Amino acid sequence: MASNEKGVAGDNLESTLQYAKKVFTERLGGSPSVVAYAPGRVNLIGEHTDYNNGCVFPMALQRVTVIVGRPLSSGKDCRIITTAFSEDNDVTFSLPPPPTDEEYQDKTSRMPLSSPSWTRYVKGVVALLSRGVSGGVPPFEAVINSSVPLGGGVSSSASLELSVCLFVEELCRRVGVVLPTFTNPERALLCQRAEHMYAHSPCGIMDQFVCMMAEKDKALFIDCQPNNDGTFTAEGVPLDLEKEGLVVMVTNTNVKHNVGGGEYEKRRDRCYAACDKLGVKTLRDVKNLEEIEKLKTSLSDPVPDGPTEYQCAVHVVSEILRTIEAKEVLKGGNFRHFGKLMNESHESLKNVYKVSCFELDCLVELARQDERVYGSRMTGAGFGGCTVTLLKKEAVTETQKRIQEGYVNEKGEKMNATFFLATPSSGAGIIKNI
Known about the structure:
Belongs to the GHMP kinase family. GalK subfamily. The protein is an alpha+beta fold. The chain has helices at residues 13-28, 101-105, 119-129, 156-175, 184-199, 206-213, 241-244, 262-278, 289-293, 296-299, 309-331, 335-351, 358-367, 396-406; strands at residues 34-45, 55-71, 77-82, 90-94, 140-146, 218-223, 233-238, 246-256, 373-379, 384-392, 418-422, 429-430.
């Protein structure tokens, strides 16, 4: 979604919800009858691995997207007022028709893009939910508020999708419209498919999965290699930060370099091309770096920009191995080693996969100048967005001050970073007692 750190009231569920209800009453009158929410997430380690069937290790944030609303008794259009997006904040639109069976079964199907861009996520989820529903989803009016930083690599899109998914499910239940019964993994997959089809973003499963299924006070290790029945394996690992006097700090560069939508696809396609040469279905099937070294020459054909197929394979395989190690390290309570793996991850993303940028590197280098900082790395797709830092709680103020004073762009111009401390939180839900 568009990058924008628009100020909204609150940085947790309660305050974000209260502000949404306030706007609803002021702009639409009365009170909402349905409330749903979904958190953002920060990935601790395991970047650009999910679409290679690798492993990821995120945690949900206390920052959430909230949607409050009610069904409309007449008409066919929906009205949504947003406080979270830089684009039009009061939009009326017709409910989209569901995709045909042929369109849905074709994994490459892409539906026309709507405007403003945030409506693509809403319409996509509604359209997929309405498949097979006689008469479709009922029209509604709603307010969306979010404390998840937009365009920061902390899953503002998945947060929006899942909050809308739960909202529409509950809305239908209230008015007697029968939808299929979804499990939490099925909801995550539906929202991922909506993002593919309606926002043209070929994301992996991580964001939707953790935003739906995260557990409080735990990081969620997700194996993105599908099981035979199409499900995924996930394991909540206790993240006892308080016991160790540690915190997770998210730092926003407040920049998003316009490198074009093709950079993500370029790397994904080169990963897939490397698989063909390595004779494997996915890079998850490569067990060690030695297998890649044997074919280094054939994987190193010159490319006009970005990483070679060899570099893509090296990053992904090494990152998968790091992430698996990180799970075991965290289980053993060795946060120092966990931080070391975070640092190694950033160096690979910067120098091998080439998805970092000057501002991200600047924040990471400034953060690491204190031994009380265990690890710091970029998080998310890259080219801007956020860093994630594991550090002693006592070092937070000093670290933020050092970063703010030293943060500059490539031209040496002073930049402004924003920070928040992340609390491992639970996944998406419905609030019954409003």
